Amino acid sequence: MVYLAVFVDMLGFGVILPLLPFRTERLGGSGVWLGGVLTAYALAQFVAAPVLGALSDRFGRRPLLLTSLAGSAVSLALTGVAGSLPALLSARVVAGLCGGAIAVGQAYAVDLAEPGERTRALGMVGASIGMGFVFGPAIGAALAGLGFAGVSFVAGGIALANLIAGAVLLPRAARPAGQRPSQRSGNPLATLVQAVRLRALRPLLGAVFAATFAFAGMEATYALLGGRQHGLGPRGLGLVFTGVGVVMAVVQGGVVGRVTDRFGDRRIAVTGAALLGLGLVTLPYGPAWLSYAALAVLATGQGLLAPTTATLIARAGGSALGGVLGIGQSASAAARAVGPIAAGAAFDLRPAMPYLLGAALCGLAAALILRHHRGADFHPDAAPAEQPA
User: Fold this and answer.
1) How far apart are the first and last CA of the chain?
2) What per-residue confidence (pLDDT) applies to 124?
3) How far apart, in whole angstroms, are the C-alpha atoms of residue 80 and residue 146?
4) Complete domains list, the chain, with CATH
5) Helical H segments across the chain, by residue range
6) Please, what is the angle between helix 31-59 and helix 188-196, to 10°?
7) CA distances (Å), 41 to each of 94, 98, 100, in order?
8) What is the pLDDT of residues 141-170, one digit of tens each?
9) Could you read off the pLDDT of 216-264 as tens digits, one per residue?
10) Are 249 and 130 in contact (CB under 8 A)?
11) What are φ and ψ of residue 170, in 5° steps?
C-alpha cells in the first residue's frame, strides 16, 4: 500500500503538469513567472523534506504520510481556484511542502522491508514515483478539455481518494517491534543537525546533488535539442520522455534489487553514475537513433543510481532514517531548483554544453560515492556508520 500511495500521489501531481505553463501564461505570467511557478515546488520540497522525515522518526510514518496526502489534496484544490499569479505560486509552494513526503514514503518502505531488501524497496518507491509521472501528464493531456480548474479538481479528487485509501489500508506500525529508535521524543531539528554532521553522509549528499543536477538539466533542455536536431514536436517529445520514465521504472522496480544482491549498493551506484554520464555525453551528437539510445542508457543509469544512493544514505543515518532520507530528498530538490536554470544558460552558450557539464558532474558523483567508505561495500546487515565530525 505504501507504493500505491506514493504512485497515486505523484499521479495526481503529474496530471496538472502539462497545463501549468498555459495557465501561467493566461494569468499574464512571463517566462520569469513560469520559472518561478515551476521552481516553487522544488524549493518548498527542499525545505520540507528533511523536516517531515525527522518528524516521522518521532511521531511515526503513518500519521506524517497521511498528513502529507491530505496536504496534496488541498494544494491541488488551491491550484484549481487560483485566479492570480501569486495565488498559483502559493498553491505550488503548498504542493512542494507536501511533496517532501516522498522521504516519509521511502522510510516507511524501508521499515517494512527485511534488511537485505532495502534497495529493492527503495527501488519500488522510485518506480512508483516514475510511473506517476509517466501516466499523470498523459491523463492531464487527455482531460485538457475540462479546463485548468476542472483538471485540477480531478487531480484533487484522486488525491482525496488516495488519502481515504491510505487511512484504511496503510499499516499502523511501520517498524517491527524491537527496531524502533531508542529515543522517539527528541527534537527533530536537533536530529537533522546531528545527521548532517555525519562524515559518511556528506559525500553521498554531494553525489545526489551532482547527479540530479545533471539529469534535471537534461530534462530542461532536451526539448530544445530534440527540436533543433531531430525535428521533435510536442507529441514526439512526450513519447520520448514517456519512454525515459518507463525505462527508469522498470530498472528501479525489477532490476536494481537483483544486481545489488550480487554486486552491492556502492558498486551499482557508481555504475549508475557512469551510465548516466555516458548517456549525457553521447546525447548531443550523432543521428536520432543514437540520441534515443543515449536516453535509454542515461535512464538506466538514473534508475540504478537513485535507489542505491538512498540505501547508502539510510544506512549512514542509523536510527534517524526519515530525517536522513529527507536530507537526501532535500539535496535532490535543491538540484532540481537550480539545475534547469544553469542548464538553460549553458545551452544558450553552446547546445552541447549542459550535457558535457552533466557528464562531468556524473564523474564527480561517482568519485564521491567511491570516497564513501572506500574499499568496502555495505552489506544488508552492516551497522550504520555514525561518526560526527
Assistant:
1) 38
2) 79
3) 12
4) 2-371 (1.20.1250.20)
5) 2-16, 20-26, 31-59, 61-81, 85-99, 101-112, 118-142, 147-169, 188-196, 202-230, 234-250, 256-263, 265-282, 288-317, 321-349, 353-371
6) 100
7) 8, 9, 10
8) 778 788 888 988 988 888 888 888 888 877
9) 888 878 877 887 888 877 667 767 877 888 888 888 887 888 888 888 8
10) yes
11) -65, 135
Determine the residue type at 240.
Answer: V
Handedness of CA 51, 327, 61, 10 (dihedral sign): positive
Give the separation between CA 215 and CA 247, rounded to whole angstroms: 14
Residue recorded with cell 503529474: 14
pLDDT tens per residue across span 177-213: 344 444 444 455 555 566 566 677 888 888 999 999 9
What is the DSSP secondary structure assignment for residue 113, as one 8-state letter? S
Instruction: Return the residue matching grid coordinates 499521479.
Output: 11
Contacts of residue 133, Cβ cutoff 8 Å, sequence gap at least 6 = 10, 14, 17, 245
Residue keyed to cell 521504472: 249
Question: Which residue do the cell numbers 533543433 mark?
Answer: 228
Query: What is the DSSP code (8-state) at residue 146?
Result: G
* Residue 352 CB neighbours (<10 A): 16
What's the rounded Cα separation, in Å, for the pair 26 and 30? 10
Full DSSP string of 151-213: HHHHHHHHHHHHHHHHHHHS-S-SS-TT-S-S-SSS-HHHHHHHHHTBTTTHHHHHHHHHHHH
Other beta carbons within 10 Å of 22: 12
Contact 2, 126 (CB under 8 A): no
3-state secondary structure of 144: helix
Of 3, 272, 257, 278, the residue nearest 130 (C-alpha): 3
Return the amino acid letter for 90.
S
Residue with cell 518521532: 58
Closest CA to 305 of 258, 252, 347: 252
Mean pLDDT of the chain: 79
